[in-house]
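Bumping with the actual sequence this time:
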Amino acid sequence: MGKAVFYIWLMAVCMVWGDDTMEVQVVEEEHFAALTTLSPFRRSLNLSKTLNLTGVAKIGDARFVTLYNYETRETHTVSSAANAEGWRMISIKGDQNDLESLTAQISLAQGEVFVVRHDKNLPKPSQRKPEYRGRGSSRNSPENVARAASNYRAGFGADGFPDKPPPEIVAKLSKLSQKQREGIVRHFNDLKSKGVGMEERRKLYVKMVDRTLKGGSR
């Protein structure tokens, strides 16, 4: 990434000509910070990680795929014609009767392309974890936080796990107090609200559970 930013910086040196002089204006590296944080290439890569190909169908000459986003918990239907989000399927390879063999290439409205496959280990739409968000209330309302902390075996929408937490994490959570678990729930609800991705939240969640178990008071 460092080399890429350097080359972009090098090409962005602007020469402004006057009557008899030449002034060189250098564009600083921080001007390109957005390329490393909001890069369209990174956005495509993230979609490949958070989308699961859950179905394929052929209607007449048209083929359709369903994609489940386990981060937003939304299902998208995509074909060769652009859907409401502007997504369209460029190609699909594999045996239509074997979902795990399929690979679909999807183009976004902005032109970026990503690849999506089926992963049987990811949750299906019917396996959504509880969000504990009541009508008109936030994730961090006392009622929702207490409910998520009490039902720690099922997990909650911000913990970073696509399904229930693994047994080793559940075992550690069982050794924490309700108050400690509520503190963890509030912290990760805040992280999700700030846009921290699922994979990063999962790593931080495991670390925080370990840290709380080792040094926190009950």
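The tokens above came from a reply further down the thread. The CA atoms of residues 168 and 185 lie 18 Å apart.
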